[in-house]
Amino acid sequence: CVQETGIVAAGGIVCAAITYFVKDYMLILSTAISGSYLAALGVGFIAGGFPSVLEIYDIIQHNGKLEMSVYAYLGGIALFSILGIVVQCYIKSPKELSLIH
């Protein structure tokens, strides 16, 4: 257990160091993905058909067949994540997106 904790802590330190040097890109990536997920969640709340993560896990464990609406939501999340990344990179100038500050 102590060894696993050390591995997790080392991974956290490595990720923190990487994030320090590429924080703009990490911020763009995280906001694009989380924003598109929350938008899909909102649409799913109104339109229906958006299952929770636990429901998806249970379906995959039992019979492995997801409804087409789930794939549509996942495709929308991927599409809007990419769109969000492109828009945010376009808005920020290349000078502002330097790798080392």
Can you describe this structure?
- The protein has 101 residues and is mostly helical.
- It is built from 4 helices and no strands.
- Helix 1 packs across helix 2 (23-47) and helix 2 packs antiparallel against helix 4.
- It is flat and about 45 Å long.
- The mean pLDDT is 86.
Q: What's a concise summary of this model?
A:
This protein has 101 residues and is an all-alpha fold. It has helices spanning 2-21, 23-47, 53-62, 68-91.
What is the strand tally? Answer: 0
Rg, rounded, reads: 18 Å
Number of helices: 4
What kind of assembly state do the chains in view correspond to?
Answer: single chain
Shape: flat
- In percent, how helical is the residue content? over 70%
Order of helices and strands: HHHH
Summed over residues and divided by their number, the pLDDT gives a mean of: 86
Task: Describe this protein with a few key phrases.
0% strand, 101 residues, single chain, flat, mainly alpha
Summarize the SSE layout with pairings.
Layout: H1 2-21, H2 23-47, H3 53-62, H4 68-91
